[in-house]
Design a protein that fits this description.
Elements: H1 3-15, E1 37-41, E2 44-47, E3 52-55, H2 70-81, H3 91-103, E4 109-113, H4 116-131, E5 135-139, H5 157-160, H6 171-174, E6 177-180, H7 185-195, E7 199-204, H8 220-230, E8 234-238, H9 250-254, E9 261-265, E10 275-279, H10 281-284, H11 303-316, H12 321-343, E11 348-352, E12 355-359, H13 368-371, H14 376-388, E13 391-392, E14 401-402, H15 409-428
The structure holds (4S)-4,5-diaminopentanoic acid.
(4S)-4,5-diaminopentanoic acid (HOZ) binds near residues 25, 157, 210 and 399.
Amino acid sequence: MATLSRKLFEKARELIPGGVNSPVRAFKAVGGEPLFFARGAGALLYDVDGNEYIDYVMSWGPLIFGHAQPEIVRELQEAAKDGTSFGAPNPHEVELARLVVESVSGIEKVRMVNSGTEATLSALRLARAFTGRELVVKMEGCYHGHVDALLVKAGSGVATLGIPGTPGIPARVAEQTLVLPYNDLDAFARLAKERGREIACLIVEPVAANMGVIPPRRGYLEGLREITAKHDIVLIFDEVITGFRLALGGAQELYRISPDLTTLGKILGGGLPIGAYGGREEIMDRVAPEGDVYQAGTLAGNPLAMRAGIVMLKQLRQPGIYAKLEALSERLARGLTAAAEEAGTPARLTRVGSLMTLFFLGADPTDWTTAAPADAKRFGSYFHRMLERGIYQAPSQFEALFVSLAHTEEQIDRTIATARETLKTMRWAPEA
Ligand code: HOZ
């Protein structure tokens, strides 16, 4: 029963557009009403009515050690005693910057901001200033925050809710963005040949995770690196989701590719609002006050987010962390795949590390065109049946499942058993 959630949602709708502060949360794509949560502990979430869920959203990625991790909570309590924001330099910024530069190979200098959206919009401005060019290339179905120039054919909520284009974005801005299919290297090679001299940057999620998880084809990222270098186009990896998740050094470590700029967020802040962009020194030195590209923020580098981030990144350096995450993720992926097979459900599980999506599709998706036909209605009934049985997933077919280090094997096995039971029921009642 979700009595209190229902009451809160009613009230929220009177006060907040759609009752939520970020669209996908409203459950519009799966039907029904969102749950309101009271607290989290480890891999578990508790709603305001006292129901318990195994959580695979994990705040959309930041909580790689689970909810309310004691080390982070302790650090935040200490940090708060010293003041929450100075609007002036503090030593923790330097320490977090050091950890980022040491961890991420493509980053020689880094600037902290407050969200992934801020990071991508700043990276775009910087790339345009650095190259003196205006065009931006992005991939259909990739999501880079709600930046005007990057909402064109975007993933995440835009794909989930089927919003064709957002009013309020001037046509002249949208025209500066060229959109290509993800994983189609030839399309980019052709475009670069024709218009390379006009293109400032190419921004891509190295592993697409906002149209569901779609791994890069072999050679795709290498090809992007080669072609962008040839045409002096700034290559931006949006690692807001993949950063510190797929490896300490993110997707660029996993695939051994050094982009010119990288955007970060999520895990970097240990669960507090944060973003960052960084890259080659030559480019980053154009940022004010060293250079002429303006970008600023009162809460940027605030000690709470910095200190939580430092604790997070230091823990991620411990040996065996990523192997453990991989083992848990592999266990879940294998179990879900088997559950779908047993039930005769046409489904495909895509995965890179601890990011995965169970697509209700007959073939592996490789881009938005092949992901979009996934049976979102079937996903909606799967989602609700899992939820009733205590499993909380993103309320959209086109988002990732996030596995954390707080998930236990027992919780993963319980999730698989629940999926098996759920998918079997769905087989007997196809579209209930
Ligand atoms: N854009 C996020 C999913 N890719 C959703 C953010 C939220 O609702 O918190």
